[in-house]
Amino acid sequence: MKIIPAKSSTISQVIVENSSASVSDGMEDYDRLKYKLLVLTIASGVVIGLAVWFWYGWKITLSYAVGSLVGTIYFRMLTKSVDRLGGESNGLGLSRLGLFVILIAIAAKSEYLEILPAFLGFMTYKVAVLVIVAQDLSKT
Length: 140
Hints:
about 80% helix; mainly alpha; 5 helices; about 140 residues
């Protein structure tokens, strides 16, 4: 936002205060969105995990739950990375990618985990994103 100097310092202070208020309102909205996405991710992981347990048993549920937990950690790391955008963040997110690779490698080597349910559990955070998008579309 470009601030045009005014003859009165009171007017320029009002302009600066209003722009900083809108930025802080935007950050509050962003923080609420992050929290809502995190809660929806955890809730959908629990609900889907219970459904998987009911239909497929404990082994598939364990794979899904581990994937969902890793996906939630991944989502949290992603939000922290977004928070640092424009600042000191120059990383490519290799730690987040490594988290996913480790999950799939462990699922492939483990006799207790299955790859596909672990992958689908990892993608559970996308369910929360789809819920938010659907809510926004229904408001318009």
